[in-house]
TrEMBL record:
Gene3D superfamilies: Aspartate Aminotransferase, domain 1 (3.90.1150.10), Type I PLP-dependent aspartate aminotransferase-like (Major domain) (3.40.640.10). Pfam families: DegT_DnrJ_EryC1 (PF01041). Its cofactor is pyridoxal 5'-phosphate. GO terms for molecular function: transaminase activity. Keywords: Aminotransferase, Pyridoxal phosphate, Transferase. This is Aminotransferase class I/II-fold pyridoxal phosphate-dependent enzyme. Belongs to the DegT/DnrJ/EryC1 family.
Length: 384
């Protein structure tokens, strides 16, 4: 079955003949199982790409977050610091461990975690005697957090960092201290997602990346039902069934071959949107065009006072033309699921949620479809 050909999607999977060839090879090899040679190769290739010594391929990015947090010692009675502006998976994974997520507001320019607030919260939590198992910065929409500022703050408090780079494969950090380092390389461990709408997809999948062989080994063990190394099935603790299938790893390897091309297309789309909106008052791009970002989803921010219209007006106009858009993540501290959670809030994330709109940004987006998107946006702006 094909996706609806008339509809323009936000970030449709970009899969073609290279992927078909890799997946067929995996099927013909007989390795239709979780694990196998494709998984091993995919792990090595992704680890090299993000500058890590070890990688563990898993069934989702959420599973990678869960296992990483468990290896960090997150458990009932501990606290994990999470940005309020993120996909719910980041906070859900904290809940799986029994730890308590505490939310922090974001930088109004790029939506990444506010490092000043993290420092303040770490001080507060120390005074109240809480044990903080981890800080989980999220590279929002594929733009790296300011690690030059964040890592020293966390190191000073002796709290390990887990980088949620689910959206950020292919992004580069361009700030101070760590200039040029890839997303996924920061903190004790990082996680990636290969969900269908992410930059690189295995249809569903994820990866934990780190430099510590013991951490990788522990995650691998927990992901395969925590089986003891004896011939029969012996278990001393709770494990999970979280490994990636060999067939899906083959799909991931094909996507990795094409990654630079897919990144270039997403960057080109951001440039075109930037030009289109450059002369429109009250509109700017989330992240102000950070050249290190992977441009996963190009997002505009609309100041209704200056623009004379709201992001949701454009969303409705595009929806009528069968063009998919999406608001930014609804902040976690505003979610019924996390009502009552402790949070340090400035209002920045809520404002981004209310004024932001992610535009069709997938690398599979063709010129004909893009022409339709630009035509519909042009018509909307002309009518104002
Ligand atoms: C997609 C995403 C995840 C979860 O990844 P899955 O592979 O869908 O489980 C986690 N965190 C963020 C920020 C994401 O965007």
């Amino acid at each position: 079955m094909k996706l609806d050909a008339r509809r323009v999607y936000l970030s449709a999977p970009d899969v073609g003949s290279v992927e078909e060839a890799y997946v067929m090879d995996a099927l013909r090899s007989g390795w239709v199982a979780p694990l196998g040679p494709q998984v091993d190769a995919f792990e090595r290739e992704v680890a090299a790409r993000v500058g890590r010594a070890h990688a563990v391929a898993l069934s989702s990015g959420t599973a990678a977050l869960h296992l990483a947090l468990q290896t960090y010692g997150a458990c009932p009675g501990t606290v994990v610091i999470v940005p309020t502006l993120t996909f719910v998976a980041t906070a859900n994974a904290v809940r799986y461990t029994g730890a308590e997520p505490v939310f922090v507001d974001c930088d109004p320019v790029n939506g990444n975690i506010d490092v000043g607030l993290v420092a303040q919260l770490l001080r507060q939590l120390r005074v109240s005697g809480r044990r903080v198992a981890a800080v989980v910065p999220v590279d929002m929409f594929g733009a790296c957090v300011d690690y030059g500022a964040l890592l020293p703050v966390c190191a000073a408090a002796s709290v390990p960092v887990l980088e949620d780079a689910a959206e950020a494969l292919g992004a580069t950090y361009l700030g101070a201290t760590y200039r040029g380092r890839p997303a996924g390389s920061f903190g004790r461990a990082g996680i990636l997602s290969f969900n269908g709408n992410k930059i690189l997809t295995t249809s569903g999948g994820g990866m934990l990346v780190c430099d510590d062989p013991l951490l990788a080994e522990r995650a691998r063990y927990l992901s395969t039902q925590a089986r003891q190394p004896v011939p029969h099935y012996e278990h001393t603790e709770v494990g999970y069934n979280y490994r990636l299938s060999n067939v899906l790893a083959a799909l991931g390897r094909a996507q990795l071959v094409r990654l630079d091309g897919m990144l270039a297309r997403r960057r080109q789309l951001r440039e075109r949107y930037a030009k289109l909106f450059a002369s429109v008052p009250g509109v700017r791009l989330l992240g102000d065009g950070d050249p290190g970002a992977n441009c996963w989803l190009t997002t505009i921010l609309v100041d209704p006072e200056r623009a004379g219209w709201q992001a949701r007006d454009l969303a409705a106009h595009l929806a009528a033309a069968e063009i998919e858009t999406r608001p930014l993540w609804k902040p976690m501290h505003l979610q019924p699921l996390f009502s009552g959670a402790h949070a340090l809030i400035t209002g920045a994330a809520q404002r981004l949620f209310e004024t932001g709109l992610a535009l069709p940004s997938g690398s599979a987006l063709g010129e004909e479809q893009l022409g339709r998107v630009f035509g519909a946006i042009g018509q909307f702006l002309d009518e104002r």
